[in-house]
Design goal:
The complex is a heterodimer of chains A (595) and B (507). By secondary structure, chain A is mainly alpha-helical. Chain A has 24 helices and 2 strands. Chain A is 72% helix and 2% strand. A two-stranded antiparallel sheet of chain A has the order 1-2. Helix content of chain B is 77%, strand content 2%. Chain B is built from 21 helices and 2 strands. Classes of the chains: A mainly alpha (595), B mainly alpha (507).
Chain lengths: 595, 507
């Protein structure tokens, strides 16, 4: 009886709650075994709960708050794979970070993971916003974790972007709800038969704001810099957990609400292309991974924009595979950071001699991200490519994606392992990574290969498995043109890399800082004024100086008014308040008598 | 979802007398505490009386939820000649807030008084504390305008004395108490003058009666003057900007226990009384009522919400930061009133409860820290989270609720207010609230940064975790903020039922 009730409860509770609950105990787990139990056990229970979920596509748990009917748990085939990937990533992170003793970082990371899992399973806009904000707030602790001056600053910038995303989403939701009165996504577009995907019309009030909020979190071009700024500055474990959730949650939200929106095709295509250039010349390998993350999310956004059943399948499969191999790559770079203390290409090289396992796992990750047949990237990415190829109008997009695929291979598939583990010998002989790190990497690598060899295992969970997934697996995936095309791409890209290396034309490893659009946010506007030309130089300087002076004067004034002994805050004499009350009395009297 | 009925268990004979018992038991307890032989006995009397009062408040809330409103006739003399208590769902909710915070604060006082107040004053302190509690419950329960004045004075007298007792620790408590004494008296006087005007116009003091007669009267200078005097008088007691001069000193320099209780309940009772006059006693849609809401209350509330938040940003003393924040939050509450809709009123009342709980938790956490360190400036709180993690976490929960973090009660409260503002088309009010929230993030962020991320200054006294007797009520308060953030059915039902009733009753 009780067992039945327990099972019932498990099947009807949002799996994210279990991770959140486990996270609350993490700071108090003084001994390592208990901590390990919590960090791996929370996701494990969540996994059991997810698998035993009672029927996809119905509201399993609802609560009404302030007159709103919130749907706490509504799994369906779109959220299932995202949730599964998130839970696996949370467990891997748990194993990967066992060597550390940082209760604050561990607890917030688990909260962050739990919030992300919760977010994909909730069934309405308000709950989505709540969990959305929770991921923003908890994730910033990952950036803060090194506790250095630099990381605090990066964290501030990161938080500004994340909170603006939340504010935009909130504003959009408020407008949408007050206009339509509907918050449950399953009811927004009631005529939709089957799976609710792409439920929101972009013309609906507030929809553009919601899209913009999602876009910041997905790191759309021009607002992508928080990602490259923050991820490389975290601890070795921080980047692993950050890479899994934030952007993929945004991809999920985009698919849920905006699949089929044409803007996304082009935004996604641009996202895949531009990071390639930055990634090729970047020296910090974790930053290279951050750029490549951007490029990978571009594929997903593009697929979501195409919005056909095959494309949505592709986006979801790609997100799943991507969480595994990108996590794996960040884990391997984390191991390097942990043992060597740097991930700058100029400081590394030749590490395969003493870190053979890490090298091997990194190569598996690199092969997966490059979409080598028999690795997970191939089975996922090919769907996106096929979907874009299917529509002749999207030929340019297809070309862009093709170029980006070559670029991925160049910077993530070859550059990362080559510069870190092979390349010129740096003379460093660090120890192999700790066992827990190797274990986490091993599991992730095994998953990458498993999906690559047995794609059916992944495909059966896809949103449109019956409709298009089955056929695609049976008749499209392993066809000769498909495999050949991918192999050609790989061979020629590798050739190009070798050729360039041989002729020493490949951008060499160079210490330096690459200027991206973040320059606009951080330096650009002030500099623009002075760079506007010789004649304007003086005026510009004056303006800057004036602005400075005005700013200083303004702060000074604010301080004078509001600070401790300022005009407003100085201990107001009794008589002033007494007179004020008489004045207000007079005012109210006047208003009442003459109104 | 937990319903009130499941929480409350008592024999029906007791339930029938609950409204008066909730007031009279603390009042009698005050006498007993004053005569108690030792501080320890006084504390026990205070705990028992407060817990009993809180229990009775629960009974009243259950009844009010079921019946809509309770009328309790004192001594069998029917109104308008006799005095009646008249409790609707909102009053019951406020009573519950006062009862709950009072009981938890009473438990907490066991440790807090020993650390902060001289031993020979303990019994008197407890007497004053119970007096204050009785008065505040009386204000929200009474159905009689003059009776409300009496309760206002009862609670105020207790408050003046208790703030002044803080001089043992902080000499600035004396001028603060004096300031509050003068301004509080001015406020109460203006209020009673206003009631006088209304009595002259209607010939009754019973609020329901008054409302009935006012709705039949034409434009009348006496009524309008009464309205102005009552609003400003209660405005002073409620710390309406710019009449809040007494508040920062009173909150910051009083003994910790008093800060907890004052911040959570004292201004709230006056705010609630103001709401009753605005929406119950005075007829709907009068020109002067509308003009007051639009041209006086809304601008002042908005100005208070912004200016006092900025002051909090620049302030260096921690308790004063929280005090300024309280004035700003009062601004938020008044903004909800200014919407003049049932939704706005219910959101405001919900906000009152949320704010009471979070501020009580924050001040109680500071009180718990004051047991071991005498820190005042924000810098001196650097790194306390390491030495006293539970206390710091409880403070952080209160602070998170203040900012409006999802999953805390503060989030639902802000959401409700902003939704009400948008629903009634007053977008600028939503904008002011958003701006105020951003400022809140700034000053709360400063506090969190100091407590959790900064290392303690070398040589500074080390904080210690509070003993269990002080920690338990603190965690209970923090827990309430989270509980109602997850399942707000109790405050939500009561505030909505109350607001709906007020707006339905009026023609």
């Amino acid at each position: 009886m009780t067992v039945e009730r327990l099972a019932d409860w498990l099947a009807n509770t949002n799996p994210g709650f279990f991770i959140l609950a486990a996270a609350l105990f993490v700071p108090f787990a003084r001994n390592n075994a208990l901590r390990a139990f919590l960090m791996v056990g929370g996701p494990a229970i969540a996994l059991v709960a997810l698998i035993s979920a009672e029927g996809l596509g119905s509201n399993l748990s609802t609560v009404s708050v302030l007159g709103l009917e919130l749907v706490l748990y509504r799994p369906d085939s779109l959220s299932f794979l995202f949730g599964l990937a998130f839970i696996i990533a949370a467990a891997l992170f748990g194993i990967y970070s066992l060597h550390r003793r940082d209760p604050l970082q561990d607890a917030t990371a688990m909260l962050y993971a739990g919030a992300a899992v919760t977010a994909v399973f909730v069934g309405d806009l308000v709950s989505l916003f709540i969990t959305w904000e929770l991921t923003a707030i908890t994730s910033v602790f990952q950036v803060l974790a090194p506790r250095s001056r630099e990381s605090v600053r990066a964290a501030t910038r990161y938080l500004i972007f994340q909170v603006s995303s939340g504010m935009l989403v909130l504003a959009g939701i408020c407008m949408f709800v007050s206009a339509t009165g509907q918050i449950q996504f399953a009811l927004i577009a009631p005529s939709m038969a089957g799976l609710p995907v792409g439920v929101m019309d972009i013309e609906a009030p507030g929809a553009v704001l919601i899209l913009a909020g999602f876009g910041i979190k997905a790191a759309f071009p021009m607002v992508h810099n928080w990602l490259q700024d923050a991820y490389p500055k975290t601890t070795e474990t921080g980047a692993v957990v950050l890479s899994a959730f934030t952007t993929k949650l945004a991809v999920y939200a985009l698919a849920r609400y905006f699949a089929g929106l044409e803007w996304l095709i082009w935004i996604g295509a641009i996202m895949t292309v531009f990071p390639v250039f930055f990634a090729v010349i970047e020296n910090d390998l974790r930053r290279v991974l951050a750029y490549s993350l951007n490029n990978q999310v571009g594929f997903m956004v593009c697929a979501v924009g195409i919005g056909t059943q095959l494309a949505v399948n592709g986006a979801v499969a790609h997100a799943f595979a991507h969480i595994m191999y990108k996590g794996l790559l960040f884990m391997s770079m984390g191991a390097v950071l942990y043992r060597v203390g740097s991930t700058k290409a100029t400081d590394l090289g030749g590490l395969h001699r003493t870190m053979p396992w890490t090298t091997l796992f990194c190569l598996v990750g690199a092969a997966s991200i490059s979409a080598l047949p028999l690795f997970s990237g191939f089975v996922a990415k090919s769907m996106v490519m096929t979907a874009s190829h299917a529509d002749p109008a999207l030929f340019v997009v297809w070309l862009m994606l093709l170029f980006a695929s070559a670029g991925v291979l160049e910077h993530s598939g070859i550059k990362i392992p080559y510069f870190a583990f092979f390349g010129h010998d740096s003379g460093k002989r660090p120890q192999e990574a700790p066992f827990n790190m190797l274990l986490a990497m091993g599991v992730a690598a095994a998953l990458c290969i498993l999906i690559g060899i047995m794609p059916g295992w992944l495909y059966q969970f896809l949103p449109y498995w019956e409709e298009v997934g089955k056929d695609y697996l049976a008749s499209d995936l392993w066809t000769a043109p498909h495999v050949l095309q991918q192999l050609q791409l790989l061979v020629f890209a590798t050739l190009a890399f070798m050729l360039l290396q041989w002729r020493q034309l490949y951008p060499p490893e160079m210490p330096g800082v690459i200027v991206d659009v973040e320059w606009l946010w951080r330096r650009g506007w002030p500099d623009l004024v002075s760079a506007a030309g010789r004649p304007l130089w003086q005026a510009g300087r004056l303006a800057v100086r004036g602005a400075d002076a005005a700013g200083g004067w303004f702060t000074g004034l604010a301080r004078q008014v509001f600070a401790n002994d300022g005009w407003v805050s100085a201990k107001v004499p009794l008589s002033v308040t007494a007179v004020a009350s008489l004045a207000i009395l007079g005012l109210v009297l006047a208003v009442s008598l003459f109104a | 979802m937990i319903l009130l009925e499941t929480l409350y268990v008592a024999p029906p004979t007791l339930t029938a007398q609950a409204p008066v018992l909730a007031i009279i038991v603390p009042l009698l307890g005050a006498c007993a505490a004053a005569l108690a032989p030792s501080g320890r006995t006084g504390w026990m009397i205070s705990v028992i009386a407060s817990l009993f009062g809180g229990w009775m408040a629960l009974a009243v809330a259950t009844e009010a939820m079921r019946e809509g409103a309770i009328v309790y006739v004192l001594g069998g003399f029917n109104p308008p000649l006799g005095i009646a208590l008249r409790i609707d769902a909102m009053g019951a909710l406020l009573g519950l807030l006062i009862g709950a915070v009072g009981a938890l604060a009473a438990v907490f006082s066991g440790h807090s008084l020993v650390a902060e107040v001289r031993t020979e004053k303990h019994t008197l302190f407890q007497a004053g504390f119970l007096l204050c509690q009785a008065g505040l419950v009386g204000i929200v329960y009474t159905g009689d305008a003059f009776n409300a004045f009496v309760f206002l004075e009862i609670s105020s007298i207790g408050t003046y004395a208790l703030i002044a007792i803080g001089e043992g620790r902080d000499r600035r408590a004396l001028p603060a108490a004096f300031n509050y004494l003068i301004l509080g008296t001015v406020g109460a006087t203006l209020y009673v003058i206003g009631v006088g005007f209304l009595y002259a116009a209607t010939g009754t003091l019973n609020m329901a009666d008054m409302a009935a007669r006012l709705s039949t009267l034409d434009q009348n200078a006496s009524v309008q003057a009464g309205f102005a005097f009552i609003m400003v008088g209660l405005g002073i007691k409620a710390a309406m900007f710019p009449l809040h001069g007494w508040l920062p000193g009173a909150y910051a320099h009083a003994p910790s226990l008093m800060s907890i209780f004052l911040a959570a309940t004292a201004t709230k009772a006056s705010i609630y009384l103001m709401a009753r006059f605005l929406f119950e006693v005075f007829p709907d849609g009068t020109a002067f009522g509308e003009a007051f809401l639009t041209w006086v209350l809304a601008p002042l509330a908005a100005a208070g919400a912004i200016i006092c938040s900025i002051q909090a940003v620049f302030e260096r003393e921690l308790r004063r930061i929280i005090a300024f924040s309280s004035i700003a939050q009062v601004g938020f509450i008044f903004l909800g009133f200014a919407l003049g809709s049932a939704q706005g009123l219910s959101a405001s009342v919900f906000y009152i409860v949320a704010h009471g709980l979070m501020k009580a938790a924050m001040f109680m956490a500071l009180g718990a820290l004051a047991l071991s360190i005498g820190a005042r400036r924000l810098d001196e709180f650097a790194g306390v989270a390491r030495e006293a993690p539970w206390t710091a976490v409880a403070f952080a929960v209160g602070a998170a609720s203040l900012v409006g973090t999802p999953l805390t009660m503060g989030f639902l409260a802000k959401w409700g207010l902003i939704e009400a503002a948008i629903a009634s088309g007053q977008i600028w009010i939503a904008v002011v609230m958003a701006a105020g929230s951003v400022l809140t993030v700034i000053y709360v962020g400063r506090i969190m940064e100091a407590m959790f991320f900064r290392a303690p200054a070398p040589g500074a006294p080390r904080a210690k975790e509070a003993p269990l007797g002080a920690l338990a009520p603190l965690l209970a308060l923090a827990g309430l903020s989270i509980w109602f953030g997850l399942d707000a059915s109790i405050p939500e039902q009561l505030s909505q039922a109350g607001a709906a009733r007020l707006f339905e009753v009026r023609p």
